[in-house]
Amino acid sequence: xxxxxxxxxxxxxxxxxxxxxxxxxxxxxxxxxxxxxxxxxxxxxxxxxxxxxxxxxxxxxxxxxxxxxxxxxxxxxxxxxxxxxxxxxxxxxxxxxxxxxxxxxxxxxxxxxxxxxxxxxxxxxxx
Length: 127
Fold this sequence. Notes:
alpha/beta; 5 helices; 44% helix
C-alpha cells in the first residue's frame, strides 16, 4: 500500500473493473481524499482489517467475494465504517439487500459525481 497523506481521509474503492476504478480514483483525488484500491472483496476485507479507512465504495459484483459478503464481514469488526454500495446492475430489491448487508447507502452506475461526493461528505460528517 502506498504512503498516504495522514491529514486526508482515506477512501477504499473496492472495484474489479480497472476503468471504473480509475474514474472513481480521479474524482476522489480531486476531492482531496487518499485512495486505496481493492480488486475484490477478499482484498477489501483485508485492507479494512489492517488499515485506517474512512469510507468504502463497495462494488456489489466482484470476483472471489462479492461486495455484500465483504460488507457483512467488515461490519463484524468495524461496525461504524461507512459503506456505499455501487452497482451497474441494479435490480428491484437490491437497495434493501445492500442495506441488510450493512451498506449505509446505495448508488447506481453510471455514477453522478456530485451526488456521490454529497453522499460521501454526509456519511463522513456523521462519523
